[in-house]
Amino acid sequence: MRHNTVATTNTNTPANYYSYLFPDSTVRIKDITANNYYRPIVHHIANVLDIKSPYFNNPFQGNIYTKYTIDSIGIEYIYKRKLNVSVKDTLLIYLYQNTQKNFGYGWVNGPSIKTDYGTDTVFHIPLNYLYDKNLPDAANMKVLKVLLEASDTTTGTFNKVKLFKSDFNVPANGLAVCAVGFKPGYSYVANDTLSKTKNYFAFITHEVKGAGTIPYYTETHSTIFNKADWNRSYIVNTTIRYNYNSLGWNGSYMPPAAFVKNYGLEDHGFWYKISTNDVGIKDELADRGFSLGQNMGQYNFLGSTG
Fold this sequence. Notes:
By secondary structure, the chain is mainly β. It has helices spanning 6-9, 100-103, 111-117, 194-197, 238-241, 284-287, and strands at residues 15-20, 29-30, 37-39, 42-49, 68-80, 89-99, 106-109, 121-124, 129-130, 135-136, 142-148, 160-170, 174-183, 200-207, 232-237, 267-268, 270-275, 300-301, 304-305.
């Protein structure tokens, strides 16, 4: 299943992008359509999977509070190789789970929230981050190292879905988090240009209501927590990576509501195959025809000058 629920609640046509994922901002990227150079602006990504969301199409056939297993995960991506096949780049996958109570609640408020969403506060599940290690700050994480092979290389700006086994158990009434970082298998120095001389990995993401719109949110207001949809995509940007964010987000992944209009990194392309021994479940990933190495579509670059 698609990790987010926007496909079932949003009637707009999303704007589709890709953004480079790199552990720091010392390297450069050359825009393939213009003579501009960029720094990577995203250094870690994550999302919360809330299977209990009322917007999912009843995957557990009525029993939304059952325990389940995430058998495998798919990530939509673009990957280019410039170096010898002996160089092995890696995706570092961090999985952890807990209940809503133990996660706690985070919120964003202010005049723009009132204007954009018609409420004074928008809630989310806070995800903690260690800037000195570039990984989640969470207990009992399952860490997967997923190698990127030459066969994972993509063509042009067309993307694929990288599938890997996870075998991750989530308790009844629990939430799951999947955080992802990219570990290059090569050395690099300041101002190396990824798009010219190095392998690089980019994740696929979507501005849900279309380009130039405010971040899309389903119901997460305090008066209806029992009906909340906690599915969210998050990023660690450069200000958090180096612990100088001036808006209070240091030590945290940022949800879409932390940004205003024109924010394109709302909904990352994550897919999950889940199973349970308690009830039947539908394999939506297979039903939609996704397979390892399949080209999915063409996307536009989303970056920042610097």
